[in-house]
Write a structure and sequence with these properties.
Strand content: 25-35%
Helix content: 40-55%
Largest sheet: 4 strands, antiparallel
Number of strands: 7
Amino acid sequence: MPKPLTAVVIKRSRLSLGFQLLLGGGLALYASWWVDYRIAAIIAMVAIVAGYRQHLEAPQKLYLRCAYERERPVWESSIDARTWQTKTCRLIRLGPLLSAIDLSGQRVWLWPDSSDADSLRHLREALAEQFERADFSS
């Protein structure tokens, strides 16, 4: 019996941006204990700009799908859902709230607001199954 197609729309995460800004603000607050407040303000601005720039560089939506050919997963991604590129997909971190995958050298973090909960669950299941198959075959 053929396996069903796994398809997910991964959106740019606002939780990721908030966490990066919070981390940058915490770093600046910690730095204010050790250096002049003006240098700490510069550190805060650099952290905020770097976090926001990284947020803007990520695509607004990334379409990811997994089809099975001869019982092997074939991962494809697209930015516009029209042109698909075959990618290698490797699980980096698997967790209930935060997961990470490697798409042909590009690290993609999956935050809870990156997609709907059901799609993320199906994606985690497909990735975990792929990881288990690769682990048993070696």
